[in-house]
Amino acid sequence: MSNGTDSRKTFIAGNWKMHYTHTEAAALAARLGERLDTGGVRVMVAPPFTALQAVADALRGSAIVLGAQNVSPEASGAHTGEVSCAMLAALGVRVVIVGHSERRHVYGEDDALVARKLQAVLAAGLEAVLCVGETLAEREAGAAEAVVARQLRAALGTCSAADLRAVTVAYEPVWAIGTGRTASVADADAMHRAVRAVVAGMTGAAAAAGLVVQYGGSVKPDNAAELLASPEVDGLLVGGASLQADSFIRIVASSASSPLVDSCPGN
Ligand code: 13P
């Protein structure tokens, strides 16, 4: 959990991936808006594009931040199927996830494209959650830190220390996503230190010390507190367990700085 520097506020985000129609997503957002006391924690939900408007409406008046899962690096034009930063911003999106492993590994996004997306997000005055993480084969080959360092250098290569204030890094080991396998706290801790060291080398120690680094990969209500107890884990990027109000609220409540609003009966 963030400590050592006041600027690292705990940041817990739900990535709803390709789940829920706009009606279903609005219902979940409304439940979260009613029941989740964000307390001292920054909380974001990232619904599918088609649900952004409905979720924005449902979250009006709530402190929960609206996020998007992806974006085009282009500003406008003949890009069939793409959505621009300006379109997201107009819906009230404040944060965009870029470089998620499903985008990298299933949809073939390379480091250069992720870097262009990140630059587009920052240029639009939005914030980014930059996802990095190694595959199981890369970890077993002893290359985990090198892979993550390469992803960071490629994406953040042109960022100033000021730009970095709008960036959160999410360490999501690919082998832990949707598998029920979580990185050990020691592994997450070590990689988060490595992330901060790479960023320190690029933009200076002060910027790196203020960088919020989330962990993602099979985060559940019963492992969130342990992960957040690490001084290096400043937040969580949650997939499956963010799809029910009950489990997401319990995860947010795992952060000592967040009071639980109710006892979360059912969902
Ligand atoms: P799970 O929490 O379902 O493993 O997904 C993690 C993730 O990819 C969040 O972006």
Helix/strand-derived category reads alpha/beta
Q: What's the number of extended β-strand segments?
A: 8
- Ligand roster: 1,3-dihydroxyacetonephosphate
Average of per-residue pLDDT values? 93
What share of residues are in beta strands?
5-15%
Please characterize this protein's 3D structure:
The chain has 267 residues and is α/β, with parallel strands linked by helices. Helices cover 41% and strands 14% of the residues. The longest helix is centred in the last third of the chain and has 19 residues, at 185-203. The two termini are 26 Å apart. The model is unreliable at 261-267 (pLDDT under 50). Bound molecules: 1,3-dihydroxyacetonephosphate (13P). Residues 15, 100, 172, 177-178, 216-219, 237-241 line the site of 1,3-dihydroxyacetonephosphate.
Secondary-structure map:
Elements: E1 11-15, H1 22-35, E2 42-46, H2 52-58, E3 65-68, H3 85-90, E4 95-98, H4 101-105, H5 111-123, E5 127-132, H6 136-140, H7 144-156, H8 161-164, E6 167-171, H9 185-203, H10 205-210, E7 212-216, H11 221-228, E8 235-238, H12 245-253
The structure holds 1,3-dihydroxyacetonephosphate.
The site of 1,3-dihydroxyacetonephosphate (13P) has 14 residues, from strand 8.
